[in-house]
Amino acid sequence: MPEIVLTGVNIGDYGKGEFGNKRHEHTFQELVEALDEQEGISRLRISSIEPNLLSDETISFVAQSKRFVPHFHVPLQSGSDIILKKMKRRYLSPLYRNRVAHIKTAMPDACIGVDVIVGFPGETEEEFLKTYHFLHELPISYLHVFPYSERANTEAAAMEEVVPQAVRAKRSKMLRTLSVKKRRQFYESQLEKTWPVLFEEENKKGYIYGFSPNYVKLRAPWDPSLAGSIRDVRFTEIDEQGLMRGELV
Predict the structure, then answer these.
(1) What is the DSSP string of 146-206?
(2) pTM of the entire structure?
């Protein structure tokens, strides 16, 4: 198996509530350690995991793992502690900053993706700018940006200080522009480095695509011999689409 992605809702809470118990019968850390010993898997990737559920122990383990790759997607939602409290998140911005710092200290080439929601009720321009500047300062790699969308029968839908749709759109655009810059900076940091790239199997309009362990997306002319394989590639340039190009080594 070339790669398996661990995914789910609150995956860091793995084992909580097992067998009807409220306490953890098993932990996410135990799952990670057990999976790392499984033969026949080239790569294991952790998908979205909230910062309060991503322990320093797990980060340190991934850094020396045989199979887990240096890529984390850690939802933030807002860089404003005021908004995080309104959202009833189980963390605040200092914890998030700490998690990012630990990842980059343990794995300098790690890719860190972030989920952000803009336009939550009560998000003033000042609170939004706290999010923007917080993300601008962090060594993250890309953003997934979502404008807040009302859902019936939720507490948020009944909140006052509704942010106009046009403002939500403007803030989304600002963060998506920041994401492009962050991804470019991250890709530039990977130039001239060599990584094992897992190539996809599909011919997409004459090109084949692949991903490094740290989630750098590579584009190359279609070559059926590469399909589904893992090959060492030295990253040489970033193309006009913002994707990596490279040479087989």
Answers:
(1) EE----TTSTGGG-SSPPPHHHHHHHHHHHHHHHHHHHHHHHHHTTT-EEEEEE-S--BTT
(2) 0.94
